[in-house]
Design a protein that fits this description.
By secondary structure, this protein is an alpha+beta fold. Helices cover 43% and strands 12% of the residues. The chain has a five-stranded mixed β-sheet with strand order 2-3-1-4-5. The structure holds FE2/S2 (inorganic) cluster.
Length: 165
């Protein structure tokens, strides 16, 4: 299985927010810059807790507004904890040309949520990504960090059923 950064397997739960752990992560990443800091916090906790912006801003001597601006720009940096599973559907050109938009519409319809949202039972979070480097296998997706290519309607339904088991 190909490992994609920032995604844990479905068997791995994210830990609860812990400010001391967050400060340790920030200290380890701060020489690499703000985006590295926020990405590391997002990877550790699955999202950026409301106090993450303040912790990062203080350590990097930035304003909270500056940190929030970056945090809200990147889709991979979540504002809320994800569901138990994360389905990321590619919406870039190659996947669009192979029917990706219809699969996206199917996923939102079957789940009853939009992109960036989590189902009420917290079983799955649906996210949009723009090219996974799997264009030759379009339309493509990541399900809990695992790549899936040449998706069709049956495959989308199967992934959703997997997440809801
Ligand atoms: S456009 Fe979808 S994987 Fe490249």
């Amino acid at each position: 299985m190909v490992e994609f950064p920032g995604e844990k397997s479905p068997m791995t739960r994210y830990p609860d927010w812990n400010e001391e752990d967050a400060k340790t992560i920030v200290a380890a990443q701060q020489e690499r810059g703000l985006l590295a800091v926020l990405s590391a916090l997002n990877e550790k906790f699955g999202y950026l807790h409301k106090h993450a912006v303040g912790v990062a801003a203080k350590a990097l001597n930035l304003s909270r507004a500056e940190v929030h601006g970056i945090a809200s720009f990147y889709h991979d940096l979540r504002e809320r904890p994800p569901g138990r599973h994360v389905l990321k559907l590619c919406g870039a050109e190659a996947c669009q040309s192979m029917g990706g938009d219809a699969l996206a519409a199917q996923a939102t319809r079957e789940l009853g949520i939009g992109f960036g949202e989590t189902t009420h039972d917290e079983s799955i979070t649906l996210e949009r990504v723009y090219c996974l480097g799997l264009c030759a296998c379009a339309p493509a997706a990541l399900f809990d960090g695992e790549p899936h290519g040449r998706l069709d309607q049956n495959a989308i339904s199967w992934l959703i059923a997997e997440a809801q088991e």
